[in-house]
Write a structure and sequence with these properties.
Elements (H helix, E strand, L loop, with lengths): L2 E7 L2 E7 L17 E5 L6 H7 L2 E3 L2 E4 L2 E4 L6 H10 L5 E3 L3 H11 L5 E6 L7 H10 L6 E6 L4 H16 L4 H11 L3 E6 L4 H5 L5 H7 L5 E7 L2 E8 L2 H13 L4 E8 L3 H14 L4 E6 L2 H7 L4 E7 L8
Parallel strand pairs: 3-4, 3-8, 8-9, 13-14
Antiparallel strand pairs: 1-2, 5-6, 5-7, 10-11, 10-15, 11-12, 13-15
Helix pairs in contact: 3-4, 5-6, 9-10
Amino acid sequence: MLVSYIRAKDGNISTWHDSGSVDRRSCTLKKSSMVRVVTDSTSDIPPEVLQDLDITVVPLYVVFGDKTYRDRVDIGEEEFYHRLTTDSALPTTSVPSPRDFADVYNRLANDTDEIISIHLTSKESGTYNSALLGKELVEKKCSIEVIDSQSISMACGLLAIAAAREARAGRSLVQVTEMVRRSLQRTHILFLVDTLKYVVRGGRIGKAQGMLGSVLGVKPLLTMREGDLSLSGIARTRTRAVERLYDFALSFPRLVDAAVPYTTNREAADALARRVREAFPRASVYVARVGPALGTHAGPESMGMVVREGEAPQGSG
């Protein structure tokens, strides 16, 4: 079986292949003590960040008609969004198989004894459960923690980035996992979609809420509540909706990381990110392109704000 994985190289997404065979002989190479970080392609982490922090990405699948594409491997963002708006049939998505995850874990286990694997909310996708099943198929001795981020896009991505930073600082798997679990309730997302058409057709939100979003051309704002995607509110105009995204970031004074995921309008995303950087000069603020797997449900002209808060000072309420 030939399985492909995503990795960032020289700022671009590239792939490598594995036959899936496992060498059962004892490995004579010295393993690294550093925890390795795995996520899936819906985390939308920019390629240069993947490369810098050595984060491994397992791609989801996007289906147009009778053809299946690996997210960001066989189909890139530009081609995908063009087809999304011009093809008569909307695409669908499917999750990586347990074997996809097991092959990644087995390969990484050649170099490490500890892996943390962080994925999009289990309430909207089977990816997390597939990773859990993949963990059971691993044939090499390695401790693996699989985490449900309870969110999507760069809300999951910021957790993976924070985990990779902790791993690079020499933290153990237990320490990295504890940090990520503490961060779950301190990572927040608000997402502007131009229309709820794609979300409703993908079955990610109810038709009643979808009808509300179509009233008078208002701009829907979505959020995650305990892992479920739900309608947070509406704005009368896109300008007001973008201002709501900015105000959302300002409402978290302990903001340490932020991201502006977008589908098609890079200029608007850059402008919003600049404002957040000015408000929080010490924070890391990323601009991230939403890939085909999530773009299937978000649609063109969508943009979000993701925030990860720092921990409260000792002794504070």
